[in-house]
Specification:
Strand content: 15-25%
Radius of gyration: 17 Å
Largest sheet: 7 strands, mixed
């Protein structure tokens, strides 16, 4: 079986992607290849961050690999938190701060704090529309490819459900009556931003094997 590194140690994301890819590839995590350092994410776009992480793994560990970056883009907030979604609660007011200062430490990821901040920001907003967007960057045999997945929906006024991770309890996808956090893994993977981007990745890999 061919090996492909997913540039993450996030167990939730790893499980989702392994379920979607199935038995076509053995998907390895960063820890599986002995990579324990924090990967650089210094760009202001999802595409830039995904490519930066994939290039780091390819150049330092010499594996075909893919990396993703995901953002929640809220209309009333001008597309925020966007590329800063994972560290939204700890985001400084001064967005001109450079790379590491802007992104903070790895333990700044706090889903509960992120949701609280977002719900507070939308308290007086009538428009609660938003979209999740995932970009996957694949490097295979030195060639780079990008795949995008988008799911549109809205931000709820309170949390619903205990499944998933991140903003899932407050994101209600269009044409559904339950949040991501109220769906099974299979249901979410079928319609999610990451699922759609990964499906494009799998289609590419299948056609080019």
């Amino acid at each position: 079986m061919k090996k492909l590194v997913f540039a993450t140690n996030n167990s939730h994301k790893l499980t989702e992607v392994r379920q979607i890819i199935g038995d076509s590839y053995e998907v390895l995590s960063l820890s599986d290849i002995g990579c324990h350092e924090e990967l650089p994410e210094t760009h202001d776009t999802l595409e830039g961050n995904a490519l930066e992480k994939a290039r780091y793994v390819y150049e330092h560990y010499h594996y075909d690999c893919f990396a993703d970056d995901t953002g929640l883009e809220v209309t009333a907030l001008g597309g925020a938190p966007g590329v800063f979604s994972a560290r939204y609660a700890s985001l400084p007011e001064d967005l001109s701060a450079d790379g590491a200062n802007r992104w903070g430490a790895a333990d700044d990821h706090d889903s509960e704090a992120n949701m609280r901040k977002l719900l507070d920001a939308l308290q007086r907003q009538a428009d609660r529309s938003a979209q999740f967007r995932t970009v996957i960057a694949l490097i295979q045999d030195g060639d780079e490819h990008l795949f995008e997945g988008i799911v549109k929906g809205k931000i709820t006024t309170e949390r619903h459900g205990a499944e998933g991770f991140g903003y899932d309890p407050i994101f209600l996808p269009d044409e559904h009556i339950v949040t991501f956090a109220e769906m099974s893994a299979e249901e979410k993977n079928h319609i999610s931003h990451r699922g759609r981007a990964t499906a494009k990745l799998v289609d590419f890999l299948t056609k080019n094997d």
